[in-house]
Dynein heavy chain (Trepomonas sp. PC1), 138 residues
Amino acid sequence: IFSLKIALEQKGPELKPSTQQLKDSICEALRQTITDIMPRIPRLSLSLIEKETKLREQTIQLKEKQAQALIIQKENEGLTLTDQDKAEIWKEVDTWKNTKIPDYFIKGKYIDMFTFMEKLWKYDFDIDEVQENTVQQI
């Protein structure tokens, strides 16, 4: 729907009246869906976000230590590591550093806003299955 909306907006004044009505209908349906559904999605509590942030930081530190140890181990074994080899070892650390704490928790999984909207349009989950206590299931 987002892609269709953008494509329709790019056409601008060239739109036929029926296409303009379609665009307006899509925009209104999108707005109404967001308005109806977003209040029903449980937000992570501040204390939970703090816990997740601390856990994330601890995990990053652990992954950094593991990466350093692996590099030292390989060099002690006589292997010459290229910058690309080292980058590959540090890849998981970088992944953890670039991971943010998402806003939503649905069916036992963290889901950020954009993933949530993508899943909504693909009907990957039934919104009625989202319960107020899902955050507590962690």
Remarks:
- Residues 46-97 form one domain.
- Residues 12 and 20 are 9 Å apart (CA to CA).
- The mean pLDDT is 67.
